[in-house]
Specification:
Blueprint (H helix, E strand, L loop, with lengths): L13 H5 L6 H6 L6 H10 L3 H11 L2 H15 L6 H15 L3 H5 L2 H6 L5 H10 L20 H14 L6 H16 L9
Helix pairs in contact: 3-4, 4-10, 4-11, 5-6, 5-9, 5-10, 5-11, 6-9, 9-10, 10-11
InterPro entries: DUF6931 (IPR053855)
């Protein structure tokens, strides 16, 4: 898989991108502290360590792009008759991507909570909710900023959950999701393939 130049990645060095990530033993064995993020990503993909590559990209993409990627994956895995709260979570996350306002960010929490934070759509919505602002209630006097890795972790969870929707296709779905993320990281829309 050709990964391109990846100009949208937030971290030039892999060491910055993997800080705090729980990677597999195989992925850790490929890690070189001074390697560029793009080189480490390519090594993970070449070794078919797709789940690790997805986690890395979730963190390395800018927040808005990571949420969009999670939305694309979640939408691709929606059943014909999705649960209303799942559809609402995905729509809220997409609304934040298209218009990243505080109001749209906050609107992502309730539908994700309604799905017990367990689905791809709920995780896409939480990725948007954790993108900035405060985690405290809107009327709270204290500001509680989200951790830097929360958006990427939730976006990657959305992608991984969406891929797991059809277990016999998981490897192909991981591969397709990585192609979407690489397109996004290269400045595209992520709408690649079929």
């Amino acid at each position: 898989m050709d990964i391109g130049l990846l100009p949208k990645l937030r971290f030039a060095r892999a060491a910055e991108a993997v800080a705090g990530l729980d990677l597999s033993a195989e992925a850790k064995a490929l890690f070189a502290p001074n390697a560029p993020t793009s080189a480490y990503l390519k090594a993970l993909i070449d070794a078919e360590l797709y789940a690790d590559a997805i986690r890395l990209l979730g963190i390395a993409l800018p927040r808005r792009e990571a949420v969009w990627w999670g939305c694309l994956a979640a939408r691709g895995a929606l059943p014909a008759e999705p649960a209303p709260a799942d559809g609402a979570a995905l729509e809220a996350a997409e609304a934040w991507v298209f218009r990243p306002t505080e109001e749209n960010r906050r609107a992502c929490f309730a539908p994700a909570e309604a799905m017990n934070f367990e689905t791809a759509c709920a995780n896409a919505a939480m990725a948007a909710f954790w993108s900035g602002g405060s985690l405290a209630p809107p009327d709270a006097a204290v500001v509680v900023p989200p951790g830097d890795g929360l958006t990427g972790t939730a976006a990657a969870a959305a992608v991984l959950l969406a891929a797991a929707a059809v277990p016999k296709e998981i490897k192909a779905r991981h591969h397709a999701s990585l192609a979407q993320a690489l397109d996004i990281a290269n400045g595209g829309s992520g709408k690649v393939g079929g």
